[in-house]
Amino acid sequence: MNAELITIAVMTVDRQPCYLHQTLASMFMAERRLHDLPVVRLVAGTNTLGYLDNYAHHERIAVHPLGDFEQQVISSWSLPRRHCHNYWRCLSLPVADGGGICICEDDVIFRDNFVSHLVKTVDQVQEAGIRDYGLALSTCYDFEAEGRCGTGRSYCAYDDPFYGTQAMYYPAQTAAELREYLYECGVQRYTKPSDILVRDRYADRIYACTPSLVDHIGVTSTGLGCTGRSPSFYRPMR
Questions:
Q1: How far apart are CA 238 and CA 184, in angstroms?
Q2: Which domains does the chain have, with CATH numbers?
Q3: Would you say the pTM of this structure is higher than 0.90?
């Protein structure tokens, strides 16, 4: 798979403290290839973009704000439902044929050369004949230490209960299918948080990068869940 086929989206909201600046700094320091790849897309869950003003001039970044009408519609929604809506917007971004989308939250940091490692992992998954799946770039579980990874493999099955969508990769076909499911069960009518909907849809088709390529640094939560770190993020790649 070519790195040029990966769409990278950061799902963001105006909050304090604003971790987004650390997230983008880490992303662009960790992967020099980003300057030659498609633009990084910031998908904002608001139409008020003051905290993104200093990024609007960058050619390597595209900001996607909420429209005024959308803002009015979702203003009375619960936080988990608004999160589902913004995740659905990320899944609605254009994805190249044969490619996929990597959706990150705005309070994470990245391993050096994370795009190259992600491409390698996606190739391994597809070489195993797996096509319709979700790949977690970060997890609070220590699958690697538990010996669940095959020799020479940089991923494993996500056998423990899945939660948290701090950084996920979906092939184009999976993203399109998940987009429809999330709209029906999380946006049009809210039933469950977005990560639980992902788990319900792909319970036996979720895999994890080992070691993690992304770590969660958001000590102050938006209220959606826990603030767990990845135990394998700082380990060297195998």
A1: 40
A2: 3-216 (3.90.550.10)
A3: yes
